[in-house]
Write a structure and sequence with these properties.
alpha/beta, 8-stranded parallel beta barrel, 5-stranded antiparallel beta sheet, metal-binding, A-amylase_bs_C
Length: 452
């Protein structure tokens, strides 16, 4: 239930109507029942235990990820640029680096793929890509491929005058491989339509077989170890489950980007975003729990909270308010990416609060991801501050399932103890832990972190 807020008091009142969620099962991730809207059924989230898959990466929960590109990267000989940075990426503590789409594409950014087996792209040649991947392997940083399989641009016109035939290249599909709602002769889409280009019909068994073959090739022949699934809303999550099971990436993430809840007429972000994070969790659950997802809920809340509304960072049950608070081992937390920030700026994090954002996600449970621009383009000071936070996270063994005890959550101050090993605060409110067992580990503008 969404709690109405008194404008005279920016801190949301306690929800005295809803009962606390029930919890059954074992481990840090359990089966939760969350209160629904008034007069509605309780929404259930079934958390499937599949940690033994993905090479133990999800079970380990100690991933620290880098998005290693932005929207303009294709202009700068990117594979060579990244190869020079691999030693620093490894030294900084990153376990995996998400690379831009490696295949031939009609658009230079890589998100309108055509010939999936051609690895000559605007980012560089196949030879340069393989050299980069070898360097990453040498330094023990896993390479994450950006998997764009919601849509594919054809080579010639077919049914309806659309470019929905793939003659003359590998995977020479015809119009049956394209959904009927995007100009093909296949079945209806199992997700949202990506307008303007042919959308792939994943219900076709030969299409799935070909995609599995291509993913396996990327893994076994090219050297990618992790996958990021682009526009995951566009096709059923059950297909992602099949692709992950068959191609066996060590770790995978889905981009299930849904809209948060805003209230007109001012379109202020609602305090309660439970429905938003529920939809992301439902998607993860439909993959059999094999695939993590970007925690867009945490991003949406955090980028409003740092503007002087830090009370948003505690939900009505006293938990972190994003996917992180409900299923932390599958929540990839981040504050910016190539779509939300960079030169696109579709949903940007306030630039003057970026380090507060990193102080939050790098000390909290979930699987944090750092954006290339912040790490390499915003100056040495920010680079070094982020590295220090990563160092603390690793040294204190904060992981995806670490506990969170929120001590303060008001307009200008958020403070929490994580894993009983790290204490942190963000906001301009004055605060420090009362116990002498805590030692200041690092601090910066509007943030501080202590450890024992």
């Amino acid at each position: 239930m969404e709690v109405a807020m008194d404008s005279s008091d920016p801190s949301p009142p306690c929800d005295t109507i809803n009962a606390p969620p029930c919890a059954t099962g074992s481990g840090s991730d359990k089966r939760f029942c969350f209160p629904g809207e008034p007069n509605s059924l309780t929404v259930e989230v079934t958390l499937q235990e599949t940690e033994s898959f993905n090479g133990g990466v999800i079970q380990n929960g100690r991933e620290i990820l880098l998005q290693a590109f932005n929207w303009e990267s294709h202009k700068y000989g990117w594979w060579r640029n990244l190869e020079n940075k691999v030693p620093d990426i490894a030294k900084s503590g990153f376990t995996s680096a998400w690379l831009p789409p490696p295949t031939h594409s009609i658009s230079p950014e890589g998100y309108l793929p055509q010939n999936l087996y051609s690895l000559d792209s605007a980012y560089g040649s196949e030879h340069q890509l393989k050299s980069l991947l070898q360097q990453m392997h040498l330094y023990k940083v896993r390479a994450m491929a950006d998997i764009v399989i919601n849509h594919r641009v054809g080579t010639i016109r077919g049914h309806g005058g659309m470019y929905n035939r793939y003659d003359g290249i590998a995977l020479p599909w015809d119009e049956r491989a394209v959904t009927s709602c995007s100009g093909g002769l296949g079945n209806q889409s199992t997700g949202d339509n990506f307008n303007g280009v042919p959308n792939i019909d994943h219900t076709q068994s030969y299409v799935r077989k070909d995609i599995i073959g291509w993913l396996t090739w990327l893994r076994k022949s090219i050297g990618f170890q992790d996958f990021r699934f682009d526009f995951a809303k566009g096709y059923g999550a059950k297909f992602v489950k099949v692709y992950v099971e068959e191609s066996k990436p060590l770790f995978s993430i889905g981009e299930y980007w849904d809209s948060c809840s805003y209230s007109p007429p001012t379109f202020r972000l609602d305090y309660n975003q439970d429905n938003h994070r529920q939809r992301i969790i439902n998607w993860i659950d439909s993959t059999g729990g094999l695939c993590a997802a970007f925690d867009f809920t945490t991003k949406g809340i955090l980028q409003e909270a740092v503007k002087g509304e830090l009370w948003r960072l505690r939900d009505s049950q006293g938990k972190p308010p994003g996917v992180m608070g409900w299923w932390p081992s599958r929540a990839v937390t981040f504050i910016e990416n190539h779509d939300t920030g960079s030169t696109q700026g579709h949903w940007p994090f306030p630039s003057s609060h970026v380090m507060e954002g990193y102080a939050y996600i790098l000390t909290h449970p979930g699987l944090p991801m750092v954006f290339y621009d912040h790490f390499y383009d915003w100056g040495n000071s920010m680079h070094d501050q982020i590295v220090k936070l990563i160092e603390i996270r690793k040294k204190q063994d904060i992981h995806s399932r670490s506990s969170v005890r929120i001590l303060e959550a008001k307009s200008n101050l958020y403070a929490a103890i994580i894993g009983e090993k790290v204490c942190m605060k963000i906001g301009n409110g004055s605060w420090c832990p009362s116990s002498r067992e805590w030692t200041l580990a690092t601090s910066g503008h509007n943030y501080a972190v202590w450890n024992k």
